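[Q] Does anyone have a clean structure-token version of this?
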Amino acid sequence: MSFLAKLLQGFSFIPAIVQGIESLFGGRAGTDKKQAALSFISSALSMTEAVANRDIVDDSKFHEGLSKIIDGVVECMNASVWSKATASK
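[A] Here you go.
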């Protein structure tokens, strides 16, 4: 599978990963939860392998981009019915 296909497939799991991290680390700070999500997503995308294969040529910018995607997913989820459903539990 090409790196782009793997990347796009990985992006489709980000909302589920964010929700799972929230369930596991709900009482922790947002930065802790974001780091956990970044770590999990980085592993899922095999970033180390992608860097070694030169699919990712600037690791820090790629990591920064993932961070922004996670922020966007969290913002969307917090503005949705999902946020209200988990708050009422």
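[Q] Thanks! Anything notable?
[A] Residues 20-87 form one domain.
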